[in-house]
Amino acid sequence: MTTPASATRAPGTANKLAITITVMLASSMYALDWTIAAVALPHMRGTFSATQDQISWVLTSYIVVSAIALPTTSWLARRLGRKRLYLFAICGFTLFSMLCAEADSLPAEIAYRIGQGACGAYLIPLSQAIMLDTYPPWQHARAMAIWGMGVMLAPVVGPTLGGYLTHSYSWRWVFYINVPIGLLAIAGAIVFLARSRPDPAAKGFDWLGFAALGVGFGSLQAMLDRGERLDWFQSGEILIEGCLVALGLYLFAVHGLMAKHPLVNLRLFRDRNYFLGVMFIFLYGLLTLAPMVLLPPFLQGLQGYPITTVGMLLAPRGLGMMLAMVLFGRLGDKYDPRIGLAFGFLGLSVSSWAMSGWTLEVGFWDVAWTGFVQGVGAGIIVAPLGMMTFATLDIRHRTEASSVWNLVRSLGSSIGVAIALAILVRMSSTSQAVLTEHINPYNKLFTSGGGLPLPGAGGLALLDLEIGRQAAMIGYVDVFYLSAIASLLAIPLVPLLRRPPPATGP
Hints:
The structure is a single chain. The protein is an all-alpha fold. It has helices spanning 13-32, 41-48, 52-55, 57-69, 73-80, 82-102, 106-120, 123-134, 140-168, 173-176, 178-192, 207-226, 236-258, 272-302, 307-331, 337-355, 364-389, 398-436, 456-490, and strands spanning 3-4, 196-197. Helix 1 packs across helix 9, helix 4 runs parallel beside helix 7 and helix 9 packs antiparallel against helix 15.
């Protein structure tokens, strides 16, 4: 017997566990590929004889295509049936992962990454909707905590796992690792997910809205990716991309409000909790991905740690996130989730504030405990936020609302990383120029017996290297300081969210 795509049923305990494992395998596989390939880029660059700009599209293409495909999830789920679309997404992602591992040229690698991103985009919103439909309302806090554990831990584990596989085997294994995970997820989806039939009332596809979103978001990602290297709006390319961003997103918003059957139903934002939840998930993406991108080069480049030690230093963040989600899964239904949300942003602020006091002599323990607190903060945020965002929405809009929610999270992550890198580069360059001004023959430090560490050109080279390290440290400190302030400013907005009505149940 088949059921409509929007209908739900209450599976037994065994089926709930099987569905949960299946959903976490699929969503973790997609989330893992956001960061796992980052560590392998230098090795891929050597294999393909590519420049830094060229190899960056291995990551950028995946992010851009995923974001553009996300809003089509609801329409495709209605047209094809949710289970069929979910299976197509897992199969496609697994197949393109194998092709990425076998690629013998950079154009082929980018093409396969585009296919990987296009298929994987559907996994997160469909997984979230399946989890909410599988568990009754009084267990939604636990469901979101379990689901979030897989989705949010995967990008944390990604750099460590990618570094190990690349160092011990080859960069190709960062893609091969998806194959056994994908096969298990396919088997679980076939056996345990409820069948759904296509909706005969599904309207035609909104090609204009899709094109406008593609132009707007694609141009935005290109602008963020290349802006720092081209000096932002001093470049004609960045000006053109900025105009395309404004035009594409404007047309998308106007068309979405006026069309009878738009790609994204912007009227969903009339729901107060959903509107605020989307704002908060944007802030979450803005504040949480940038540290994961910045810490590996900081620990390797300035601290000199090998990749295996970097993985150990990043592990406390994942442990903190797991602990927070487990606790919320057990206690989240008993307390006001807004309290957890406020404490989460406070944890992000406290950890970033502590990191803003780092120096080049920062110790192993300082990196570990700040990472743990940051992980706890991130873990406390995502589960209650997911529960409150969708609590007041009609179940018919859950898949569509989830796809937009995840699109905005991706947008926030991209902008957050771009802002952090821009601040790091700009402040490092400025600081290096200021520090260099003090290096002259009249400085008593170099004439009163202290002198250079080595005479002649060797001493000047060492001095220049140290100035560069100190300037880079100042850039990192500025990023952490601004992150602490931004996290703190989010807390006063938390009371604007309405607490979900208490759900009745056992």
